[in-house]
Specification:
The complex is a heterotrimer.
Chain A lengths: L21 H8 L4 H11 L5 H10 L2 H4 L4 H4 L9 E3 L6 E6 L2 E9 L1 H6 L1 H18 L3 E11 L6 H21 L3 E8 L8 E11 L14 E6 L9 H5 L20 H16 L5 E4 L4 H13 L2 E5 L12 H6 L5 E6 L4 H10 L4 E8 L3 E6 L2 E7 H5 L31 H10 L7 H4 L10 E3 L7 E4 L5 E7 L2 H6 L1 H19 L2 E10 L6 H21 L3 E7 L3 E2 L2 E2 L3 E10 L16 E5 L10 H5 L13 H17 L4 E4 L4 H13 L3 E3 L16 E5 L8 E6 L3 E4 L3 E4 H13 L4
Helix pairs in contact in A: 7-8, 7-10, 8-10, 10-13, 15-23, 18-19, 18-21, 22-23
Chain B lengths: L1 E6 L6 H9 L3 E6 L10 E4 L19 H11 L3 E5 L1 H8 L6 E3 L7 E9 L15 E8 L3 E3 L2 H9 L3 E5 L12 E5 L5 E4 L17 H15 L4
Parallel strand pairs in B: 1-2, 1-3, 3-4, 4-11
Antiparallel strand pairs in B: 5-8, 6-7, 6-9, 9-10, 10-11
Chain C lengths: L1 E8 L6 H12 L12 E6 L6 H9 L5 E9 L4
Antiparallel strand pairs in C: 1-2, 1-3
The chains are: A alpha+beta, B alpha/beta, C alpha+beta.
Chain lengths: ~725, ~230, ~80
């Protein structure tokens, strides 16, 4: 029993800093600095106990506390007329009309996937699904953004790609949520630190949306779902907040194992509990398990919680209280229930074969107290867990006169004829068809998918209102490495351009900021510039950020990854039947170039293939012109005037034209505007559209659809069949 | 007419099947623990991953209480359609011949495939024409149809293969390109492709309509109600 | 009794998992490997081991495509 009084330390012997340094090494091993530990002692007025230290070290980790990014993230615009829930909840929610909201969020699972790609990617999908149904929304779509090393030369990267894709499919396909899109790029900077970012969208009537705030002293805390085991013990601090180095094999036991069948039942169960109005609040268990979910629920509701960890159903015997509190066993949720409704909750859970166990109570103490049988093993003010972690200012410094990243080995000399260049681009791992990957995902379950991957630049999902939403996920680390501010802004513009191509107007976005170690000045500079770039683009397009995630310390001994902000954007379109397609459709259609397009070869895919420096600056961008181009395309798609619309992104206008030809199985003859480099890039700003000549009046007509080859002026003339063969084989041959 | 769609824990495409059936009649969900088939004219055993596909696909679902009723319903001549996981369940339950094995690629595969109607002599293909092509998606990891040689020969001779993958379209290594088979009495049919995902022009090709149309026409004939 | 049931694909049935392993081993320098088959191991404590064959026939395996072997039984020490 702990003695009464402020200075008593619950849970047995305190971790005093002894002269032999044993105590010091323990909190340091848990990731706390001397300064942070001193702060904890001074806030508590005593040394923390074992369980308390385990809980605090996780809550004060980068992963939970965002201590190096929180101040910066405040720059992002988060308000807009469509926002129903903004950052801070399990997922952001935007209004899509008809009393419906769409919840969405993107989250990283990078380090777990580098250690065990199948389970890491699978549980990444599992985690983001729980974030979405935690707000009361039924998950309706998953998208993924993946980065690996050079698959053309790295066997390890091929293995990671194969297993991560397998894991995503395993979880998403089994749970009945379609994977409707995504993007994959290969760069050597991701060789040791692959990126696995998963995005989920959910649909809910406004009145079923629920927040995570615990409320009502006397109410019961009920743990739902899987048994608690030793999965991911220390995962949040050990796996997510430290650079990966030699000997990562030893970290394998702390990777979580996903069970999509358990999650499917848990999801149906939670949605039925919400439909029956049996819950006061709901929260998923992610990083730092019960510790983080319970303290965040308490903080949001301004209440206290008593949790008896002896009541938590365990998968393994002999687990210590601290292990129970930080376990990252998957497929669990925490909810607050009025005492009179606990039996009804348990009955619904039994129907879904889902365990429901009352483990604690809400009170007005403002403290999180953890009991184990009769003993108090932790007794902490909620704010020390959630609010008191120090926030650090970044110390950004622009690297001057040095290229941070080595160029890729040259595979083109630079004097090849344009036809050879185009085929090299189409067959390169970054631009080749993603079909071998997308074939491993179910894009149609739930019967909403109006545009599948490869049909259009954004996925389109029909709503019960008769309208539709569109979604796209984008990011280009190499371009951000060249020019962090413009590169990050481009990711926002490109997402919005993708939405415009199907006729959707942006409602909100979510981001995942994948960067290196922010304590290094040049990484801090990349991060700061990128956030400013995203902020500028958000203002320009009037799109708010409704949620997101930060993944830092993505570094290997060879250096940091390319700075990789990933943007996921959701938009709305009035008529799904008119949603745009990217394929050229009809012989004789006119082809037009829409938007100001002054591309440059810097940071382009061709620059990579030629082994050129990873260096900026990227082309300037006129936000008003971008907005106008997006509006033009959107309006024309919605009016039904166009037969196709495609944004000009990686590989420049030549690759964009080739993609439209391949998708439609038809050729085109085009004359490029004077001086336009067919392979130079300026993503997010311009489009290739096609339609009847009469419908394209006022646009810059550059050619005509028809024939069996793509002909660009005198520069090149390639059969569509050859374009198709090259593009289709580029990635497929690496995955056999 | 009235369809019943079974929901096991782990079913994924039961609502999709219900939506497809509702284009042709009423459609209710049947809970795996209930022994009540609610007086339906046809039962759909839907796709998904019943019981997580643990142990072996379909192996646990076949012992669900509702499946005892389905077996009795089938024995009495009731119309039963098994889609994907439902096909696997019906094979495990012995209501259909053969078994489904892992795809030769060992991977999950989603693909829009071309099918050919082999026999129109069934309640599931009666509204089609022999040799007619249908575009319907497949999505599975365990869809390679297998039956021992003698059994296979008997199935072919008895005209129990109702659907085949069109030449070059076999996505999983199924013997004889078999996409769907019926039982000897021709009232139970299982197929790996998902006809319920091919009924709405908004979301893709509509080859699946033929299957549901056929069932409705058959029930209407049998009950004397107008189709 | 503690029992182990080994389940493997019936002889003659295409076993792509086994083939994949058989192809992968030589790449790692393990030559001279043939007839690789990948199956499942089911471990269970049973009160009446005589009923194991029936369990295998009805649920644990699909006799159409799988063979099984009850490889060892030993008393459970608890």
């Amino acid at each position: 029993m702990a003695a009464a009084g402020a200075a008593a330390t619950p849970g047995g012997s305190p971790i005093a800093r002894t002269s032999d340094g044993i105590g010091v090494s323990r909190y340091r091993e848990l990731g706390l600095t001397d300064h942070e530990y001193d702060l904890i002692v001074s806030h508590l007025g005593r040394e923390p106990g074992d369980t308390e230290l385990a809980m605090l070290s996780l809550m004060w980790s980068e992963h939970c506390a965002y201590k190096h990014s929180k101040k910066l993230l405040r720059r992002l615009p988060t308000e807009g007329r469509h926002v129903l829930m903004g950052p801070g909840e399990n997922a952001g929610v935007v209004d899509v009309g008809g009393g419906l909201g769409v919840a969405f969020k993107v989250e990283s699972h990078n380090h777990p996937s580098a250690v065990e790609p199948f389970q890491g990617a699978a549980t990444g999908v599992g985690g983001i699904l729980r974030d979405v149904f935690a707000v009361g929304a039924r998950p309706i779509a998953v998208l993924d953004s993946l980065r690996f090393g050079e698959v053309a030369t790295s066997q390890r990267s091929r293995y990671l790609l194969d297993r991560a894709v397998g894991g995503i499919g395993h979880y998403g396909n089994s749970i009945g949520v379609p994977t409707v899109g995504g993007e994959i790029y290969f760069e050597s900077s991701y060789e040791q630190n692959c990126l696995v970012n998963a995005m989920c969208l959910g649909l809910a009537p406004h009145d079923r949306l629920i927040r995570a705030a615990a409320a009502g002293p006397g109410n019961v805390l009920v743990l739902l779902g899987a048994l608690t085991g030793r999965d991911g013990i220390g995962g949040a601090s050990v796996l997510a907040s430290a650079e990966l180095g030699e000997g990562d094999e030893a970290k394998r036991p702390s990777v979580q194992i996903g069970d999509p069948f358990a999650e499917k039942k848990l999801m149906e169960c939670c949605l039925e509990l919400l439909d029956s109005e049996l819950l006061v609040s709901l929260q998923d268990l992610g990083a730092a398990g019960l510790t983080s979910s319970s303290s965040e629920m308490a903080a949001k509701g301004g209440v206290g919680l008593d949790i008896d960890c002896a009541r938590v159903p365990l998968r393994e015997a002999g687990m210590e209280p601290f292990e129970i509190m930080v376990s990252e066993s998957q497929e669990r949720m925490l909810c607050v229930v009025e005492p009179a409704r606990v039996d009804a909750v348990i009955a619904v859970c039994e129907r879904w074969e889902t365990l429901a166990t009352p483990i604690g109570e809400v009170n007005d103490s403002g403290r999180l107290r953890i009991l184990s049988g009769g003993d108090v093993v932790a007794d902490l003010p909620v704010e020390i867990l959630v609010d008191d972690c120090p926030l650090y200012d970044l110390e950004p410094a622009e690297p001057v006169g040095v290229d941070m990243y080595a160029p890729a080995p040259a595979v083109l000399r630079g004097d090849e004829p344009p036809a050879a260049t185009l085929l090299a681009l189409l067959g390169s791992a970054n631009l080749a068809s993603r079909l071998p990957v997308f074939e491993q995902y179910d894009p149609v379950v739930q019967s909403r998918t109006v545009r599948r991957p490869d049909d259009a630049d954004a996925a389109v999902l029909a709503l019960p209102t008769g309208e539709a939403i569109a979604v796209s996920i984008d990011g280009n680390g190499r371009r951000v490495a060249c020019d962090p501010r413009r590169g990050a802004a481009e990711a926002v513009y490109e997402c919005a351009a993708n939405l415009a191509c199907v006729g959707a107007e942006p409602l909100g976005l979510t981001n995942c900021l994948n960067f290196g170690n922010p304590e290094k000045p040049h990484v801090a500079w990349q991060l700061t510039e990128a956030v400013d770039g995203i902020t500028e683009a958000c203002h320009a397009l009037e799109v708010p950020v409704v949620g997101g995630n930060v993944s830092l310390y993505n570094e290997a001994p060879t250096g940091p990854i390319f700075p990789t902000p990933v943007i996921g954007m959701v938009g709305r379109l009035p008529d799904p039947a008119r949603a745009g397609r990217l394929a050229f459709a009809q012989e004789g259609d006119a082809i037009a170039l829409v938007g100001g397009f002054e591309p440059s070869s810097r940071g382009s895919e061709l620059a990579k293939l030629r082994g050129e420096a990873v260096a900026g600056p990227l082309p300037e961008c006129d936000p008003a012109a971008v907005r106008e181009a997006h509006r033009t395309v959107r309006v024309m798609v919605n009016s039904g005037a166009l037969h196709s619309a495609h944004d000009i992104a990686e590989g420049g206008i030549a690759v964009a034209l080739a993609e439209c030809c391949v998708a439609g199985g038809i050729g085109a003859t085009v004359t490029l505007p004077n001086g336009l480099d067919p392979f130079a890039e300026a993503p997010g700003r311009a489009f290739i559209v096609s339609g009847p000549q009469s419908a394209l009046t006022g646009l810059q007509i550059i050619g005509r659809v028809g024939g069996e080859a793509l002909v660009i002026g005198d520069a090149l003339d390639i059969a569509v069949a050859e374009l198709h063969r090259t593009r289709r084989g580029g990635l497929a041959k690496l995955l056999q | 007419m009235r369809f019943g769609v079974i929901r096991f824990p782990g079913s994924c495409d039961e609502v999709d099947a219900q939506l497809a059936c509702q284009r042709f009649g009423e459609a209710v969900i049947l809970w795996h623990r209930d022994r009540d088939l609610k007086g339906v004219d046809a039962v759909v055993v839907p796709g998904g991953f019943s019981y997580g596909d643990y142990l072996r696909v379909g192996a646990i679902a076949r012992f669900a209480p509702v499946m005892e009723e389905v077996a009795e319903f089938a024995a009495a001549g009731g119309i039963v359609l098994g889609i994907c996981n439902g096909f696997q369940v019906l094979c495990e339950a012995g209501l259909l011949p053969g078994a489904l094995l892992p795809n030769t690629s060992l991977r999950f595969i989603f693909r829009q495939v071309e099918l050919e109607i082999v026999s129109v002599d069934s309640p599931f293909t009666g509204a089609g024409e022999s040799g007619q092509r249908l575009s319907i998606p497949v999505k599975h990891t365990t869809g390679r149809y297998y039956a021992p040689d003698a059994e296979l020969a008997r199935l072919e001779a008895a005209d129990q293969v109702l659907l085949r993958y069109a030449p070059g379209e076999n996505p999983n290594g199924s013997l004889n390109d078999i996409a769907g088979v019926c039982n000897e009495a021709r009232n139970v049919f299982g197929l790996m492709p998902h006809p319920e995902h091919a009924v709405d022009p908004l979301t893709g090709p509509t080859g699946g309509l033929r299957i549901f149309e056929s069932i409705r026409a058959h029930i209407a004939d049998r009950t004397g109600a107008p189709a | 009794m503690r029992a182990r049931v080994l389940v493997k694909p019936k002889a003659g049935i295409l076993d792509p998992q086994g083939q994949a392993v058989e192809r992968a081993l030589p790449a790692l320098g393990f030559t001279g490997v043939r007839n690789v088959h990948v199956g499942r191991l089911i471990e269970l404590d049973v009160e009446d081991p005589d009923r194991l064959p029936e369990m295998c026939e009805r649920l644990l395996t699909n006799p159409l495509i799988e063979d099984y072997e009850i490889v060892e039984t030993e008393p459970v020490t608890s």
